[in-house]
Write a structure and sequence with these properties.
Elements (H helix, E strand, L loop, with lengths): L1 H37 L4 E7 L9 E10 L2 E5 L4 E6 L6 E2 L4 E5 L2 H36 L5 H33 L2 E3 L4 E6 L6 E2 L4 E7 L3 E7 L12 E6 L2 E13 L10 E7 L11 E7 L16 E4 L4 E3 L2 E7 L6 E5 L1 E5 L3 E6 L6 E3 L12 E4 L10
Parallel strand pairs: 1-23
Antiparallel strand pairs: 1-22, 2-11, 2-15, 3-10, 4-6, 4-9, 5-8, 6-7, 8-10, 11-14, 12-13, 12-15, 13-14, 16-21, 17-18, 18-19, 18-22, 20-21
Length: 387
């Protein structure tokens, strides 16, 4: 018995030792796996530090043309045959100056006829007035019947109405006679001729086109890609091909709310500041439009210029454009709303929402999520993300 229990003791010790070692190994493996799950490796993302362009706004260059701010056609208010034209293309006219005349023969006859009708109506009115006065006096003495007084009163009222009607017809005929003379209603320059001497024109048909003196506009057509960074009141630099070496300042006065159905562009009108006498109508212009970065309430963002990013960096936070920013403190992704000043073919221009030196994700923006810990790596081909 003693021999058998000693044998069991000798065989039992290695078994207990092996079991203890196995348990220790399992506990160690579990601890290692828990440690690895608690601290996963940061996910690499393609991101670079962005820098503002140093107050240099993105410039869009557009062709334009110098035009008068106001330009109206000059036309007769009555039809007839042109017998005289007193100005020609390019002539400067003053306010109230006669520029053309129609044959006044018919209008003069109408005016004379209307004047004769007015004279007859006034004579009938005076007679009706006198008759009414006599009947009223006789009616007081009961010398006439009341029905006769009523007839006289009615005849007087009819004569008065006919006199007023004839007076209006005479005034209208006089105006028609005056309308045979075409007068410039503003000072300006004749920019077009649409009728010639001896031609029969209808009422309202343009004879000249008058460009008013005063403010000058530069008109251009803005494509959809440059529309986001354009607004009324914005300034622009204008250069004219006919005046090399000179630069003018203009301000956006009007921006069409709808696109042209054929060209799909938006008409913009910019008023020139102090154009001078050298600037003439019809000159070709080059308009450099630059958008201003919008400033936030704190003033920290968007005050150093614009950020040019590849279009692949653009994401959306609901309906608003956004980008993924790697926070410098903990390398965690943050979805940041931004203001896009302009959309280009391969890039976007951000005017608000970013700070200088922040890392922005450039690729794979649809595969990451907010709060994810990442590691920023540079792109393999930086030229693919160049602006």
């Amino acid at each position: 018995m003693r021999q058998q229990s000693g044998r069991l003791a000798r065989h039992g010790r290695p078994r207990h030792v092996a079991l203890a070692l196995a348990c220790a190994a399992v506990v160690g493996l579990n601890a290692c796996s828990k440690k690895e799950a608690a601290a996963p490796e940061p996910r690499p993302v393609v991101a670079v530090a962005v820098h503002a362009d140093g107050n240099t706004a993105p410039v869009t260059s557009l062709p334009g043309e110098v035009q008068a701010r106001y330009s109206t056609p000059l036309s007769f208010r009555v039809g007839g045959k042109i017998i005289e034209r007193r100005v020609r293309l390019g002539d400067v006219v003053k306010n109230g100056q006669i520029v053309a005349r129609l044959d006044p023969a018919d209008a003069q006859k109408n005016a004379a006829s209307a004047q004769a009708q007015l004279a007859a109506a006034e004579h009938s009115y005076r007679y009706a007035r006198q008759q009414l006065d006599r009947d009223q006096a006789q009616a007081k003495e009961n010398l006439i019947a009341p029905a006769q007084l009523e007839q006289t009163t009615n005849a007087y009222a009819s004569a008065a109405a006919q006199r007023d009607q004839a007076a209006q017809q005479a005034a209208l005929a006089k105006d028609q006679l005056q309308y045979t003379t075409l007068v410039a209603d503003h000072a300006g320059v004749i920019t077009a001729e649409q009728a010639d001497t001896g031609q029969n024109v209808s009422a309202g048909q343009a004879v000249y086109n008058l460009a008013w003196s005063g403010e000058l506009d530069v008109v251009c057509d803005v494509p959809e890609s440059a529309l986001a960074g354009l607004a009324p009141g914005q300034t622009a630099r204008v250069t004219l091909g006919a005046l090399p070496g000179r630069t003018f300042t203009a301000r956006v006065r009007e921006l069409s709310p709808a696109a042209d159905p054929q060209s799909r562009t938006y008409r913009a009108k910019l008023t020139l500041d102090n154009p001078g006498p050298d600037v003439r109508l019809g000159m070709t212009a080059d308009i450099a439009l630059s958008a201003r970065p919008a400033s936030t309430a704190s003033g920290a963002e968007g005050q150093h210029g614009f950020f040019v990013l590849p279009a692949t960096a653009l994401f959306h936070d609901g309906p608003q454009p956004a980008v993924w920013v790697v926070r410098a403190a903990d390398s965690v992704l943050e979805l940041r709303r931004v203001t896009v000043a302009r959309y280009n073919e391969r890039t976007i221009v951000v005017s608000q929402g970013l700070k200088d030196g922040e890392h922005v994700v450039l690729q794979g923006v649809h595969t990451v999520s907010a709060g994810e810990k990442v590691r920023a790596v540079a792109p393999l081909h930086p030229e693919d993300f160049a602006s």
